[in-house]
Design a protein that fits this description.
Radius of gyration: 17 Å
Helix content: 40-55%
Strand order of the largest sheet: 1-2-5-4-3
Strand content: 15-25%
Number of helices: 6
Largest sheet: 5 strands, mixed
Number of strands: 5
């Protein structure tokens, strides 16, 4: 489990020289942020059950995270899921079975908390894989629960997402560029969420 210092330290190391985290090209398709769909939690539960069926005991924890996990929050219509495994570097233990079950392995960045990502096209799902010591999974949960409670930050985050999506779409940008456009506001909301959870700056 990460320490309090880990939770309040944002780490964004660059990829090693000559290495790309992207295993498939990033799309420049229009980015849509749509009103909250009350059916999203049911989609998550179905997908999570399927992952458990494929991976069995390899699933140490699985959580619905991101905007589709927050009732009332506008979101890209893509379910984000965090999967915690014992060793993200042991791709044979979870990537291979998931790919055999129809998932696509799209991101590998072991230098950032061991992160891997897989996706499905229908329904649209991003599956983020981390190890047990990753602070990212905890920050995701703390942010999710804060946004469920705090209507003001929920509105603020929805507004910056809609603005970022419009600008990114107009410029034919990637999702990474869309994320960068909302990063400052998101980071401020995360710090507020951490503070509310008792994780304060040193």
């Amino acid at each position: 489990m990460p320490t309090v210092d880990d939770l309040r330290t944002f780490s964004d190391p660059p990829a090693p020289e000559g290495v790309s985290p992207y295993l498939v090209p990033q799309s420049r398709a229009p980015i849509a942020v749509v009103p909250y769909d009350p059916g999203w939690p049911d989609v998550y539960r179905r997908i999570a059950d399927g992952i458990r069926e494929v991976l069995g005991a390899r699933v140490l924890r699985i959580d619905h995270i991101g905007s589709t996990s927050v009732p009332g929050l506008a979101a890209k219509p893509i379910i984000d899921i965090d999967l915690t495994v014992a060793d993200p570097d042991d791709e044979a233990g979870y990537v291979r079975p998931l790919v055999a079950a129809g998932w696509e392995h799209t991101v590998r960045e072991p230098w950032w908390h061991g992160h891997r990502m897989l996706r499905r096209a229908e329904p649209r799902v991003n599956l983020h894989v981390f190890g047990t010591d990753s602070p990212e999974t905890w920050r995701h949960l703390i942010l999710r629960d804060h946004l469920r409670r705090d209507a003001g930050d929920r509105r603020r985050y929805a507004a910056i997402k809609q603005e970022a999506a419009a600008l990114a779409t107009a410029s034919a940008e990637t999702v990474s560029q869309y994320n960068a456009r909302k990063e400052v506001v998101l980071r401020e909301i995360v710090v507020t969420a951490l503070r509310a959870a008792g994780v304060r700056e040193p």
